[in-house]
Amino acid sequence: MAGSTKSTTKKRTPRKTTAKSKATANGASRAFTPEPGDFRRYWDSGHTHESLGLEAETLLAMYRSMMLQRRFEERAAQMYGRQKISGFLHLYIGQEAVSVGSVWATRPDDPIITAYRDHGLALARGMSSKAGMAELFGKIDGCSRGKGGSMHFFDVEKSFYGGHGIVGGQIPVGVGMAFALKYKETGGCALTYFGDGAINQGAFHEAANLAALYELPVLLVVENNEYAMGTAVHRATAEPDLYKQAYAYGMTGAIVDGMDVFEVYHAMKELADEARAGKPALVEIRTYRYRGHSMSDPQKYRTKEELEQKKDEDPILVFKAYLLENDIATNEQLDALDEEVKAEVMEAVEFAENSPFPPLETMYEDIYTQEDYPFLA
After folding, report:
1. Does a structural domain hold residue 180?
2. CA distance between the termini of the chain
3. Cα 235 to Cα 227: distance, rounded to the nearest angstrom
4. CA angle 373, 203, 192 (to 5 degrees)
5. pLDDT tens digits for range 252-306
6. Which of 57, 192, 298, 360 is the most interior residue, by most CB within 10 Å?
7. Above 90 in pLDDT, residue 50?
């Protein structure tokens, strides 16, 4: 039997970290001292409609869109309670300044892609409220022919590409759209939205790396409404200032007051123009949702006091106060506009009620791009 031998394996000596590395392959030394990041703050900047170049007519159109989203969502919640809508229903109530500020600051053909809380952005971009409500009802006249439901609104004519149910799944697609825009030299900017919970997904980091590496025209927009389902940001993310994650990819990082439509407009317009020139950005828009994550959410993770305090920051009330104080509109005008919006939403409900369900023979339509897919043979 062979005798034992001593091991010749040497213990590894921990590598010391110094201020500078050893010479690199090309002979240059590389400093490890981090450079300051390009961080921006769009908060309490005191912008007025005049400083932003917005006319009174535009302001009223923006306010109408915010009201349409609010009334649409309120009626959708009511219809869910009456069992007219089934499945998931994620409401956008409280986040209207994000959608309106973004859409009005960018081009109509800039592609938008978002997560499952998608009604607000779709309506802001111009989707018909009838098509949206019919989709919630699961009817064939819906924007996705009744097959998508709440989480999968879609309108190619409006450059709105969903509505995606997988957390973070839309982020690489948005960066892919940006790649296409750059390749085709369209001058467009891909507006890619996701929630605060999605920033911890690997898909975000892979996409952010490619966006920066190829200098793509994309804005990675975090709609930080403070809760990923029922988990507060500080309990899920080591660095709760999410915009700072841009530093790792050499991108601009911006924090925006998402309860102020002017701040959102200013930020998105400035950053989108830079993105078109090959400077992508991570944009954290801090907002708040007044309803639960979905209709089945008991909301035990926040107090009634917190919710009431946040209602003082309601973006619609803040915008309405501005319009009144600056003589853009009177109370009577805004009340009439609200009644007009309510009537539109009720027409959308009636339209959805009267629309037929998709016929059985359409079950496999719009599913596979290949029409002669073997399963259908």
Report:
1. yes
2. 69
3. 10
4. 85
5. 999 999 999 999 999 999 999 999 999 999 999 999 999 878 888 888 888 889 8
6. 192
7. yes
CATH number at residue 217: 3.40.50.970
CA distance 283 to 224: 10
- Whether 372 is in a domain gets the answer no
CA distance 357 to 13: 70
Note whether residue 367 is domain-resident: no
* Total domains present in the chain: 1
Query: Tens digit of pLDDT for each residue in 109-148?
Result: 999 999 999 999 999 999 999 999 999 999 999 999 999 9
Give the span between the Cα atoms of 264 and 45, in whole angstroms. Answer: 11
Query: How much is the pTM?
Result: 0.87
Token pair, residue 223, equals 């709609």
Answer yes or no: are the C-beta atoms of 161 and 149 closer than 8 Å: no
Higher pLDDT, 37 or 338: 338
Q: Which of 337, 309, 328 shows the shortest CA–CA distance to 94? A: 309
**Which residues contact residue 17 at a Cβ distance below 8 angstroms, ignoring those fewer than 6 apart?**
32
The letter for the amino acid at 293 is H
Q: Is the pLDDT of residue 32 over 50?
A: no
Residue 72 belongs to what domain range?
A: 39-352
The SS3 assignment for 376 reads: helix
